[in-house]
Amino acid sequence: MNDGVELAPAVQSILDSADDRPGGAERVSVDARSLDEAFAAADADGRVPVIAEVKPTSPTTEGERTEDPVALAEAMVRGGAAALSVLTEPTHFGGSVENLERVRAAVDVPVLRKDFLLRTEHLDVAESDVALLIARFLETDEADSLEAMHAAALERGFQPLVEVHTRAELERAVSVDAEYIGVNNRDLAELVVDLGTFEDLAPHAPDHVTLVAESGIGNPEDVRRMRDAGADALLVGSAIMADGDVEANTRELVSA
Ligand SMILES: O=C(O)c1ccccc1NCC(=O)[C@H](O)[C@H](O)COP(=O)(O)O
C-alpha cells in the first residue's frame, strides 16, 4: 500500500532491485504442504508454532552466516520449528532461489518464500508452500494489486501469507479474504521494531484468520508476549540466526 511515507533507503533499494528481477518463464503449480497442519501438530505436542527463517544477512544485521542453508534448515527443524522461511532476495539478504529449492527438498515442513514479490510473474520463479505478499508494496505503479497477487498465488497452489503493518493494510488483507495474515512489527519506512504493533492490530483481525507475529521476537519473553496478544504462530529470523547453535536457538523459542 502506498501511503506516501518515504521508505528507508535500504528498503527503497530492495524494491528497486526487486522491480528489475525477471519473472518465471512458465506458470508454476504447487502441491503445498499444509501450514494449518504444521501449526496444529506443533500445538498438539506443546511446541509454540514457529516459522524459523534462513536469513544469511539483512540491512539491519552485522555480518553474514555463511553455513550451508540446508544444514541451518535441518537444525531448525530438529529444534522444533513448525515451518521454515527462506530468503530468496539475493542482494540485500544473501538469499537465493537455489537455497529455497535445496531446503524444500531436504525437509518435510512447509517452506515460505521470503522475498519482495511485485508482479504475478514473480510468483513463477520458484515453488514454495507459502508465498509472502507484502501489502504495503502491492499498491504502487510498479506492482500488481494485492487482490491480483493473492488470487494468482491461490491459483498456483501457494498458501499466501499477507504481511501488514497498519490498520489500513490489515483491512485491505481482510478485504481480499486472506486466510493467513502476518503482522510485521518492523516498520519498513524507518526499520524500527516495536512489538506493540502486533498487540495493536491483532484485536482487529477476524477470528478465522491465522495470525502470524513477524519480526523483532528475540527471546522467550517476547514469544509469550506475542502469544498472549493472539499470535497463532511467530516468524523469527535474527534471534535464531544469531551467534551460536541454531538448533538450540530455535528450541529455546519453541519451548517458551
Ligand atoms: O530484517 C531486516 O533487516 C529487513 C530490512 C528491510 C526490509 C525487511 C527486513 N526484514 C524482513 C522480515 O520480515 C524479517 O526477515 C522477518 O520478519 C524476521 O524478522 P527478525 O526475526 O526480526 O529477523
Automatic annotation (TrEMBL):
<keyword id="KW-0456">Lyase</keyword>
<dbReference type="InterPro" id="IPR011060">
    <property type="entry name" value="RibuloseP-bd_barrel"/>
</dbReference>
<keyword id="KW-0028">Amino-acid biosynthesis</keyword>
<keyword id="KW-0822">Tryptophan biosynthesis</keyword>
<dbReference type="InterPro" id="IPR013798">
    <property type="entry name" value="Indole-3-glycerol_P_synth_dom"/>
</dbReference>
<dbReference type="InterPro" id="IPR013785">
    <property type="entry name" value="Aldolase_TIM"/>
</dbReference>
<comment type="pathway">
    <text>Amino-acid biosynthesis; L-tryptophan biosynthesis; L-tryptophan from chorismate: step 4/5.</text>
</comment>
<dbReference type="Pfam" id="PF00218">
    <property type="entry name" value="IGPS"/>
</dbReference>
<keyword id="KW-0210">Decarboxylase</keyword>
<protein>
    <recommendedName>
        <fullName>Indole-3-glycerol phosphate synthase</fullName>
        <ecNumber>4.1.1.48</ecNumber>
    </recommendedName>
</protein>
<dbReference type="GO" id="GO:0004640">
    <property type="term" value="F:phosphoribosylanthranilate isomerase activity"/>
</dbReference>
<dbReference type="InterPro" id="IPR045186">
    <property type="entry name" value="Indole-3-glycerol_P_synth"/>
</dbReference>
<dbReference type="GO" id="GO:0004425">
    <property type="term" value="F:indole-3-glycerol-phosphate synthase activity"/>
</dbReference>
<keyword id="KW-0057">Aromatic amino acid biosynthesis</keyword>
<feature type="domain" description="Indole-3-glycerol phosphate synthase">
    <location>
        <begin position="27"/>
        <end position="253"/>
    </location>
</feature>
<comment type="similarity">
    <text>Belongs to the TrpC family.</text>
</comment>
<dbReference type="InterPro" id="IPR001468">
    <property type="entry name" value="Indole-3-GlycerolPSynthase_CS"/>
</dbReference>
<dbReference type="InterPro" id="IPR054875">
    <property type="entry name" value="Indglycph_syn_Halo_TrpC"/>
</dbReference>
<dbReference type="GO" id="GO:0000162">
    <property type="term" value="P:L-tryptophan biosynthetic process"/>
</dbReference>
